[in-house]
Amino acid sequence: MLNRYVPNVTLKTRVRDETIEGPNPFRWQDVQTGDLFAGRRVIVFSLPGAFTPTCSTEQCPAFERFYDDFRAQGVDDVYCLSVNDAFVMYQWGRHLGVNNVKLLPDGSGDFTRRMGMLIKKDHLGFGDRSWRYAMVVDDGKVVAWFEEPGINDSGEDDDPYGESRPEPVLGWLKAHPLA
């Protein structure tokens, strides 16, 4: 995965629009992943699903806690990507009280598939989901990769969470400062 460019795919997002009246002041906005990552150093971490146990109690909150540490190391943004739709990601972010990590809906799994991380979690009734990983992206190029061991579709995994925690990512950033 190192030294390859992230795929440029369209993510279907919802953004608040104050010109829309009523109980749902949001509009659809297509976001190109290539635009999100161009000319910037970002962290992207991906997880199996919003509202799932490890993702909700450990992974996303941990990246939120480390946000200022990442910024101090020259990171422009931290993105959490999941194979969920924009509505689910929005409600999950509200539920978690996430203020800094930006949640990206990969509802169709296009980004995840092109990263080679799309797996089936049919054994849990989840369907297609992302394997857990994190990466540092400089100007669209993957410069650091943190993947959980044992990627599989068989349901034999115990949903590992170690390699893609924020601490290894922060350690890499400290060892590889921006020029």
Question: What does the model show?
Answer:
With 179 residues, the chain is an alpha/beta fold. The protein has a single domain (10-15, 25-175), classed as 3-Layer(aba) Sandwich (Glutaredoxin). It has six helices and nine strands, in the order E-E-H-E-H-H-E-H-E-H-E-E-E-E-H. The protein has helices at 33-37, 53-65, 67-72, 86-96, 110-114, 166-175; strands spanning 10-16, 26-32, 41-47, 77-82, 102-105, 118-120, 128-130, 133-138, 141-147. A hairpin with a 2-residue loop joins strand 8 (133-138) and strand 9. The mean pLDDT is 94.
Describe the global form.
globular
Main sheet: strand order: 5-4-3-8-9
Q: Which stretches are low in confidence, meaning pLDDT under 50 for 5 or more residues running? A: none
How many extended strands? 9
Tell me the β content: 25-35%
The string of secondary-structure elements, in order, is EEHEHHEHEHEEEEH
CATH architecture: 3-Layer(aba) Sandwich
**Derived structural class:** alpha/beta
CATH class: Alpha Beta
Name of the CATH homologous superfamily = Glutaredoxin
